[in-house]
């Protein structure tokens, strides 16, 4: 099957169909923000939605990214391919198209993504296999940041998703001043503070957030590399 890649940076268009047919089946409810929240990001000009459209006009996969101008960090918020189409290169193609476009358009300090650790206990077929997902990103050049990372809670800190990994998909050399395998923490911390506040509706000042910020402020930057299998 041939797929056409389309990008939309405004609400409407394919968003409702992509949300219903691609994102809802691919992500647990606690990891998926509302369609309204994605639409609002597109409305303010900070969103980019790539869609792989099949011959019958049906979306078979999508990548959604959110730009933070203040910290110059782009986040790949969601990437998903229809379960029946996985393993045929479409996810890789979406990721390459999105990263290429975002790197040129925004000149970001970094492009990041969050995924479950490969040690996740429950593997749900529709949501994909966390081990293979990490392999997918590492094959695309992603590096794992050495951080006690958790996904901000959508709607409040009580909804946080623990034991997640934060990946670096692209880092500008200015963001790795000390060494290519250490990311400067200052922009990432600013990004994380705003991300936590935006998702949870209040500033994060609890112990988990403090531990995360502290790990981001390590002298020399945040180490990043292949997944070591150790608990971070
Ligand atoms: C991760 C995902 C986007 C990859 O898309 P894809 O089209 O299957 O990927 P490609 O065909 O380009 O690449 C194949 C690689 O993807 C990974 N992959 C394939 N099927 C997978 C599955 N069911 N679950 C997880 N990863 C899978 C494997 O690493 C595979 O490499 P391999 O064949 O050597 O094992 C897709 O599996 C998916 O939608 N998963 C569910 C949602 C998700 O996990 N999104 C990422 C978090 S934002």
Which short descriptors sum up this protein?
232 residues; alpha+beta; Aminopeptidase; 2 domains; 6 helices; 32% helix; binds coenzyme A
Topology:
Layout (H helix, E strand, L loop, with lengths): L3 E5 L6 H12 L8 H9 L3 E7 L5 E10 L4 E9 L8 H17 L3 E7 L13 H10 L3 E3 L18 E8 L10 E2 L1 H16 L6 H10 L5 E4 L7
Parallel strand pairs: 4-5
Antiparallel strand pairs: 1-2, 2-3, 3-4, 5-7, 6-7, 6-9, 8-9
The structure holds coenzyme A (COA).
Structure, described:
By secondary structure, the chain is of the alpha+beta class. The chain folds into two domains: 1-107, Aminopeptidase; 109-232, no CATH class. Helix content is 32%, strand content 24%. It contains six helices and nine strands. It has helices at 15-26, 35-43, 90-106, 130-139, 185-200, 207-216; strands spanning 4-8, 47-53, 59-68, 73-81, 110-116, 143-145, 164-171, 182-183, 222-225. It has a nine-stranded mixed beta sheet with strand order 1-2-3-4-5-7-6-9-8, sandwiched between helices. Strand 3 (59-68) and strand 4 form a beta hairpin. The longest helix is centred in the middle third of the chain and has 17 residues, at 90-106. The mean pLDDT is 94. Bound molecules: coenzyme A.
Binned, the helix content reads 25-40%
The shape is: globular
Radius of gyration: 17 Å
How much strand? 15-25%
Q: Which small molecules are bound?
A: coenzyme A
How far apart are the termini? Answer: 41 Å
List SSEs in N-to-C order. EHHEEEHEHEEEHHE
Main beta-sheet strand count, sense and barrel state: 9 strands, mixed
Structural class: alpha+beta
Count of folded domains: 2
Give the strand line-up of the largest sheet. Answer: 1-2-3-4-5-7-6-9-8
Discrete helix count: 6
List segments where confidence is low: pLDDT < 50 over at least 5 consecutive residues: none
User: Count of DSSP E strands?
Assistant: 9
For the residues shown, what is the average pLDDT?
94
